[in-house]
User: Fold this.
Amino acid sequence: MFRLPSARRALIALFAALPLLLAGPAQGASRLKDITDFEGIRDNLLIGYGLVVGLQGTGDSIDSIAFTKESLTGMLERMGIYTRNLDVQSENVAAVMVTATLPGFARQGTRIDVTVSALGDSDSLLGGTLLVTPLIGADGEVYSVAQGQVQVGGFLAQGNQASVQKGVPTSGRIPNGAIVEREIPFDLGALGEINIALRNPDLTTAHRIATAINAFTGVQTSWPTDPGTVRLRVPENYQGNMVRLMTDIEQLRIEPDQLARVVIDENTGTIVIGENVRISTVAIAQGSLTIKVTETPQVSQPAPFSQTGTTETVERTQIEVDEGEDNQLAVVESGVTLQDFVNGLNALGIGPRDMISILQAVKAAGALQAEIEVM
Assistant:
């Protein structure tokens, strides 16, 4: 049986494992596609006002909602039906706001989804149909027109004394309910330079992105202009093919850097601690006074068939006081990691609410090497 020398076998094993070793750090990195946006590739918000008809008595109150009545009257007049001086009574019509998002480079004739939301006192849009509604952009121009059957996920059922509601029946969607009528002009292929915007601006991350792009193209074609922007000049071998350049670049992987930050939401008691948070040497103690009062009424009554005595209610009160005497002072050493810090606080039996106060106190003492952001 033929056997390779031990040194040669070790060398072959090393080369076999090399792809796995190289792939390890890359798996923890992020694609540029997931952390950046390219200039010009963006969505645009659209909004419109319209009427939903066909409701089963769950529409607006025509007498009390003036804009619904005026909109209905104006629509009927445009169709040759004059109702200006007539007493129109209808509960099958609702005034709504229609919103949509126009994707970048959407062409004429393509369809987009729209969201329909009641504007008046309508109870439900279930079963309604949105009439033709122009959708305008921030510049006041009409970019699409919406119409169609409203799909509502919730419902409302009510009687004289009770009602049952699920979800929000006054809001719904119309899949593919709007047709794009106007395009937003933008010649991506003619650009000689393009800006890459970071979703989380950071100087180190911007520098790493520029370095990765230059290493990929082999020339100095990219440089950071500020913490949130990286300028990219089209290399000669990509001239006239900006889409191919952007496709290749957005697949590059880098390790984003971030500030040491502690995010606190005092309303829900949520705490998010970043990986780079460090603590200087500090002693922490936490105690609170808790008083618990329990009322346990007891009934005292005479023996069965007794001719004397009455049934009485006797109050029994139990009071418990916890002054937090079992809580001890804990010392957190300098430069501890996030895991060590969390373990130390958990060892004190501290809940999220008290932990928020402790973090703010540690920051005030100058021992928390991180930024605290309160939502």
Notes: The helical segments are 6-28, 32-35, 66-78, 203-217, 242-249, 338-347, 352-364.
